[in-house]
C-alpha cells in the first residue's frame, strides 16, 4: 500500500474512532441528564457555565448559539433544580451573572467518576510527551469544530431557498 493510501486509511480510521467517541460522550451525557432529572441541553449549558465560570445570560447565549429567550428558559430550569443561581454584579446592579452552585456541581460530578476513572487508565499508558500531543490535538480540534460550527450557523442567515437541499427522502421499509 502506498504512503498516500496508508495515510488516507489511517485518517479514515481516526475519524471513525473520534466519531464513535463523540457519540458515546453525547450518550453518556444524556444518561447523566436522565439520572439527574434534567434535559441534556440544560446539562450541557451547566457544563459550559462550569468551564467558563460566572457569566451573563447573554454570554451563555453567545457560547451556546441559543437565543436569549431559550437561555432564560434553561437558566430558569437549572435554577429551579438548584444547579445554578443568579448573582447581581456588585458594581452594576443591573448586570446579572449566572453561576453554578458548587455543591450541585459536585453531586452531578459524581456521575462522571466512572468515566474519569476509565480515562485515567487510558492516560496512564501515555508518556508526558504523548499527553502534550493529545492536549494539543484536543485544543486544535476544538478550535476546528468551533470554526465549523460558526460556518454552519451562517446558513441560518441564508434564505431557505438558497440553502443546500438537505431534505431526506422518505425511505420505504424493506419488504
How would you describe this structure in keywords?
7 helices; 175 residues; 3-stranded antiparallel beta sheet; single chain; mainly alpha; Arc Repressor Mutant, subunit A
In words, what does this structure look like?
This protein is mainly alpha-helical and 175 residues long. The protein has a single domain, classed as Orthogonal Bundle (Arc Repressor Mutant, subunit A). It is 65% helix and 7% strand. It has a three-stranded antiparallel sheet. A hairpin with a 7-residue loop joins strand 2 and strand 3 (96-100). The chain is globular. It starts with a helix and ends in a 22-residue tail after the last helix. The model has no long low-confidence stretch (mean pLDDT 91).
Q: What class, by secondary structure content?
A: mainly alpha
Provide the residue-averaged pLDDT. 91
How many domains in all? 1
CATH C-level class is Mainly Alpha
Name given to the CATH architecture: Orthogonal Bundle
Topology-level CATH name: Arc Repressor Mutant, subunit A
What is the N-to-C succession of helices and strands?
A: HHEHHEEHHH
Distance between the termini: 41 Å
- Output the strand order for the largest sheet: 1-3-2
The fraction of residues in strands falls at 5-15%
Radius of gyration of CA atoms, rounded to a whole number: 21 Å
InterPro entries: HTH_MarR-typ (IPR000835), MarR/SlyA-like (IPR039422), WH-like_DNA-bd_sf (IPR036388), WH_DNA-bd_sf (IPR036390)
GO biological process, one term: response to stress
Protein name: Transcriptional regulator
Organism: Bradyrhizobium forestalis
Amino acid at each position: 500500500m502506498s504512503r498516500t493510501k496508508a495515510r488516507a486509511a489511517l485518517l479514515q480510521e481516526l475519524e471513525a474512532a473520534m466519531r464513535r467517541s463523540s457519540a458515546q460522550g453525547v450518550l453518556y451525557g444524556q444518561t447523566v441528564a436522565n439520572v439527574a432529572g434534567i434535559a441534556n441541553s440544560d446539562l450541557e449549558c451547566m457544563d459550559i457555565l462550569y468551564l467558563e465560570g460566572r457569566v451573563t445570560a447573554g454570554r451563555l447565549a453567545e457560547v451556546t448559539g441559543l437565543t436569549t429567550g431559550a437561555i432564560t428558559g434553561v437558566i430558569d430550569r437549572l435554577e429551579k433544580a438548584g444547579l445554578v443561581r443568579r448573582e447581581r454584579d456588585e458594581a452594576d446592579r443591573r448586570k446579572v451573572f449566572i453561576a453554578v452552585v458548587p455543591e450541585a456541581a459536585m453531586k452531578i460530578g459524581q456521575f462522571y467518576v466512572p468515566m474519569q476513572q476509565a480515562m485515567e487508565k487510558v492516560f496512564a499508558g501515555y508518556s508526558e510527551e504523548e499527553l502534550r500531543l493529545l492536549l494539543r490535538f484536543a485544543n486544535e480540534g476544538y478550535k476546528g469544530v468551533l470554526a465549523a460550527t460558526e460556518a454552519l450557523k451562517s446558513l441560518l442567515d441564508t434564505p431557505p431557498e438558497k440553502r443546500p437541499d438537505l431534505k431526506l427522502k422518505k425511505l420505504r421499509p424493506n419488504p
